[in-house]
């Protein structure tokens, strides 16, 4: 099968998200300029550079009560900071609760019963028991093609790692099993890892 997206795919559901998988989930916490808290998962998320360390996520839809897409994008535009919390398999249900479309004043930490902690470098909350959290300062917000498609790039200025996830100096993902996003309503979980040496190692 071949299709051009501009012409549609003719399938019951859009296959694009199912093709580009698995995708890590950035559980983005932000604080509004009014002090309100927000927590939402984004699967258009990844690390993009080592030095300085940088991450990106894309917000791709609008809300009637915001003028800059979703709550996360609005808060980041207004404050210049955000925190990426890594999602473990054990947190799948509360992460899903936080994915709902709620009014701007709703605090997803409270809605889903998620314990929060204050970030160290930036004025923002983080998921207290996350395997890792990345405190970020925005470097760019890029308007992508499409009315509400915005790419947020941030420099990582603080890193939290849960002690039980460090084994002999290595951050061991098998200690918490990262949740990953597939297509449709599907997810997966990382339970096994293997190593490959590069030819020039």
UniProtKB/TrEMBL annotation:
Region forming the signal peptide: none
One matching Pfam family: Flavin_Reduct
UniProt cross-references to SUPFAM superfamilies, sorted A to Z: FMN-binding split barrel
Stored Gene3D superfamilies: Electron Transport, Fmn-binding Protein, Chain A
Domain Flavin reductase like: 18-173
Coiled coil: none
GO molecular function: FMN binding; oxidoreductase activity, acting on the CH-NH group of donors, NAD or NADP as acceptor
InterPro entries found in the cross-reference section: Flavin_Rdtase-like_dom (IPR002563), Split_barrel_FMN-bd (IPR012349)
Transmembrane segments annotated in the record for this chain: none
Protein name: Flavin reductase
